[in-house]
Amino acid sequence: MSRKFFVGGNWKMNGDKKSLGELIKTMNGATVDSNVEVVCGAPAIYLDFARSNLDAKFGVAAQNCYKVPKGAFTGEISPAMIKDCGVNWVILGHSERRHVFGESDELIGQKTAHALESGLGVIACIGEKLDEREGGITEKVVFAQTKVIADNVKDWSKVVLAYEPVWAIGTGKTASPQQAQEVHEKLRGWLKTNVSEAVANSVRIIYGGSVTGGTCKELASQKDVDGFLVGGASLKPEFVEIINAKA
């Protein structure tokens, strides 16, 4: 079955109204492949701004959310608030949330369940650190992370799985297309065995980790790479090239 190519841009903690406004203008004016689903992950404070200014053909994502609709959780935002801004996606479990802010697999699972119950689509991130890859436990790590997410998913049509080897994020090192394909294929195999063949065939598994205009075409040609989660390059005009990697 054909999976619609998915390109997410994770702006992280970057930009201001001026620079993001310029980026949005560039994106709105660009010719982009209509067979690609594009979602931009804006900082929470700019979700409304991004959604109000980006063309409707582009989706918007929050970069995180909490596991309950409201309450005494200073500094957090809920899926209900995200939806109230007209935003339909959230990125959860990004390696920076896991490793900089200490979010556990369990918390990421709870957030995933609540976001999906609230009607948001979830870009769920998994990936191994350099010492884990060098220690030969990449599969063990990503399967364990995937299991916690899978245990909290009822409707897989709202989930995009993002494989991001932590050693390749923002380092300029990219997993080779072969390395990416190998992990994506194994993840699809895990889903087939542990969820269902239908889910394994339909769920989009995207790659993140120093994706650029230069690396995107070969990565996009891999059988099990269904798109990208782009960091730094999503703030530059070359993001359009990455969206059109399959064109």
Which labels suit this protein?
TIM Barrel; 247 residues; globular; 8-stranded parallel β-barrel
Explain this structure.
One of its GO terms (biological process) is glyceraldehyde-3-phosphate biosynthetic process. The protein has 247 residues and is α/β, with parallel strands linked by helices. The chain has one domain: TIM Barrel (Alpha-Beta Barrel), CATH 3.20.20. Helix content is 39%, strand content 17%. Helix 3 links the parallel strand 3 and strand 4. The longest helix is centred in the C-terminal third of the chain and has 18 residues. The model has no long low-confidence stretch (mean pLDDT 97).
Short summary:
Homodimer. This protein is of the alpha/beta class and 247 residues long.
The topology string of helices and strands comes to EHEHEHEHHEHHEHHEHEH
Q: Can you give the mean pLDDT?
A: 97
Count the strands?
A: 8
Tally of discrete structural domains: 1
Adjacency order of strands in the biggest sheet: 1-2-3-4-5-6-7-8
User: Can you tell me the CATH topology?
Assistant: TIM Barrel
Radius of gyration of CA atoms, rounded to a whole number: 17 Å
N- to C-terminal separation? 19 Å
| Model regions low in confidence, pLDDT < 50 over at least 5 residues | none
Q: Largest sheet at a glance?
A: 8 strands, parallel, barrel
For the record, the CATH class is Alpha Beta
Tally of individual helices: 11
CATH architecture: Alpha-Beta Barrel
Give the helix/strand class. Answer: alpha/beta
Strand content: 15-25%
- Approximate helicity band: 25-40%
* Dominant shape: globular
- CATH superfamily assignment? Aldolase class I
GO molecular function, one term: methylglyoxal synthase activity
Protein name: Triosephosphate isomerase
Family: Belongs to the triosephosphate isomerase family.
Subunit structure: Homodimer.
